[in-house]
Amino acid sequence: MPKRILIPIDGSLQSARAVEFAVDEWPDAELTLLHVIDPAGAGYGPGTGVPSGAEEWFENAKTDAEELLSEATPRDTVEASTMTEVGRPAQTIVEVADEAGFDHVVMGSHGRTGVSRILLGSVAEDVVRSSTVPVTVVR
Questions:
Q1: Burial 111-138 (b: 16+ CB within 10 A, else e)
Q2: Looking at the 3D structure of the chain, how many domains does it have?
Q3: pTM of the predicted model as reported, rounded to 2 decimal places
Q4: Burial of residue 79 (number of CB atoms within 10 Å: 0-12, 13-18, 19+)
Q5: How far apart are CA 7 and CA 28, in angstroms?
Q6: Is 101 exposed, middle or buried (0-12, 13-18, 19+ CB in 10 A)?
Q7: What CATH number corresponds to the domain at position 26?
Q8: Edge-to-edge, what's the strand order for the sheet holding 30-37?
Q9: What pLDDT band is residue 54 in, cutting at 50, 70 and 90?
Q10: Are 16 and 68 in contact (CB under 8 A)?
Q11: How far apart are CA 126 and CA 139, in angstroms?
């Protein structure tokens, strides 16, 4: 039975379902909701240089992350802590789970199939392949 569960949050219905699943399945576990700010997704990744307004973008991204985490935090059932990190989502999730001593990851899947999955990849799939702790993917 997991004691410390990491739940990545991206604002999707699937990540909300992952929170509900973890609360229902392991009500006594310590839950931490994680949002990863991905500068590469905004065109600010390595090799692209730092655009003007990057600090403003980052402050807006942090504010958005706080709102996402606040909305995703379970109410009146269990307590959950939150954290925000910056980096590539799959890699950051795996690193946080490993370095912070989590013993389980529960995350949503967007359920992409076919060409969109090949072109866009899958954060959940990358986490499952790279994680040193068990990962439950909720659809």
A1: eeeeeeeeeeebbbebbbeebebebbbb
A2: 1
A3: 0.86
A4: exposed
A5: 15
A6: exposed
A7: 3.40.50.620
A8: 80-86, 30-37, 4-8, 104-108, 135-138
A9: confident
A10: no
A11: 16
Helices assigned H by DSSP within the chain: 13-25, 54-72, 89-99, 114-120, 123-130
| Predicted confidence (pLDDT) per residue in 20-45, tens digit | 999 999 999 999 999 999 988 665 44
Structural domain span for residue 120: 4-138
- The rounded distance, in Å, linking the Cα atoms of 16 and 12 is 7
Number of continuous H segments (helices) and E segments (strands) in the chain: 5, 5
Give the model confidence (pLDDT) of 75-85 as tens digits. 777 889 999 99
* Residue closest to 37 by CA, chosen among 15, 69, 4: 69
The predicted pLDDT at position 57 comes to 86
List the structure tokens of 89: 């989502």
Question: Which residue has tokens 């307590």?
Answer: 79
- Chain centroid to Cα 118, Å, comes to 21
How many residues can be counted in the chain?
139
